[in-house]
Amino acid sequence: MYKTKIIDLKKDRETGIKKAGKILKEGGVVAFPTETVYGLGADALNARAVKKIFEAKGRPADNPLIVHISKITDVDKIAFVTDTAKKVMDTFWPGPITIVLEAKDIVSDAVTAGLKTVAVRMPENEYARELIKESGVLIAAPSANLSGRPSPTTALHVKEDLNGKIPLILDGGECSVGLESTVVDVSNDKCVILRPGGVTLEMLKAVLGDVRLNDGVLSKKEVKGVPKSPGMKYKHYAPRAEVFIVEGKNEEEITSKVIKHASQDKEASKKPVILCTDKRANVYSGFILLSLGQSSEDIAKRLFYTLREADDIGADTIYFEAIPENGIGLAVMNRVLKSAAFKKI
Ligand code: TXA
Ligand code: MG
Questions:
Q1: pLDDT of 300-339, one tens digit each?
Q2: Is the CB–ligand 1 distance for residue 172 below 6 Å?
């Protein structure tokens, strides 16, 4: 057990980064902010340190980790770069996209979960890059939640899940993207999106032309054999309440479905909570609402936050209005579908 400490980087930037860097150097784990979600980091080239991440999160050992770097040339230390990867890196790094490449031998199975590939990302968040530099190591980091829970977008979320299990959380405020990075397999010069995120399909197509979406991004389809992205096979992003995605031909149909189901819940003495954008709030008066803001970017940023909020207020059911699967909407729908175990009404 640790007495988990939180250091606010807006107040104590130098102390925080130094302390965290030292812990990482010495083989410990630290939670830190990125622009996507908070990460739980350890020295990527120290297998014993990496194992501590799996222990703290309760993460299955066959789910590989992303290695975070602070300068582009560091990718050559751990992976073989393809031309397609180079284009992605030059255009979108630093930023919310992770590339999967053939791994060099220096990377242990603790990070790759025995795959021949390794996932690499250069985050945009300045605290994250400063921490990588200060620690002098490459940082393996999954999202800093307990396995299966919605990813943390604030330092308090991390504390909720990992209090006592890790020594230090660096607080860098709310994450600006709010969903995990896009993961693309560019190990053989094609580009396949394994997990949609902040860098969108449209943005990738504009640079690369041909880009494919992996099966399983929007459907439950099981991939036979070794899954391309092992993380996508687990139950994920799940709050304690039961999540339902509401679809319809138009807003009126969606509204009436939500009201019908939420009313039935109330009659059954359950507590329904509706997640909706501000402009939709007035049609649901009388129900408990949590705001997703206005744009798709707002929805992305607030999704995990509101799922956790719904748990905090004791929701039994959560209703989420489906949004178009373009731009960041694809990533939003991918995460909500998983948190709803693909239940649509
Ligand atoms: O935004 C993010 O990516 C955050 C922050 C902390 O950087 N990290 C994150 O890590 O979301 P995690 O572990 O929660 O998700 C990593 C995803 C998983 O779906 C995992 O299966 C996949 O990346 N992945 C990792 N290595 C892979 C590999 N070699 N091949 C295919 N997928 C891989
Ligand atoms: Mg995760």
A1: 999 999 999 999 999 999 999 999 999 999 999 999 999 9
A2: no
Q: Are 186 and 101 in contact (CB under 8 A)?
A: yes
Q: Which two tokens stand for residue 188?
A: 């053989």
End-to-end CA distance of the chain: 43
Q: Indicate the top mutation candidate among 146, 199, 229, 334 to test ligand 1's pocket, ranked by most ligand atoms within 8 A of CB.
A: 229
Cis check: omega of the bond before 230, within 30 degrees of 0: no
Residue 319's nearest CA partner among 282, 280, 289 is 289
Convert the pLDDT of each residue in 97-149 to its tens digit.
Answer: 999 999 999 999 999 999 999 999 999 999 999 999 999 999 999 999 999 89
63 touches ligand 1 (CB under 6 Å) = yes
- Supply the residue whose CA is at minimum distance from atom 19 of ligand 1: 231
Confidence of residue 223 (pLDDT cuts 50, 70, 90): very low
Check: pTM over 0.85? Answer yes or no. yes
3-state DSSP helix/strand/coil percent for the chain, to nearest 5?
Answer: 40, 20, 45
Ligand 1 contact, 60 CB (< 6 A): no
Instruction: Indicate whether residue 140 lines ligand 1 (CB < 6 A).
Output: no
- The total of other beta-carbon atoms located within 10 Å of residue 60's CB is 14
Alpha helices for the chain (secondary structure H)? 9-25, 47-57, 75-78, 83-92, 109-112, 126-135, 155-162, 201-208, 251-267, 296-312, 329-339
Distance 148 CA to ligand 2 centre (A): 8
C-alpha distances out from residue 29 to 25, 80, 167, Å? 10, 27, 7
298 near 176, Cβ under 8 Å? no
- Over residues 159-202, the pLDDT tens digits come to 999 999 999 999 999 999 999 999 999 999 899 999 999 999 99
Ligand 1 pocket residue status of 118, Cβ below 6 Å: yes
pLDDT at 239: 81
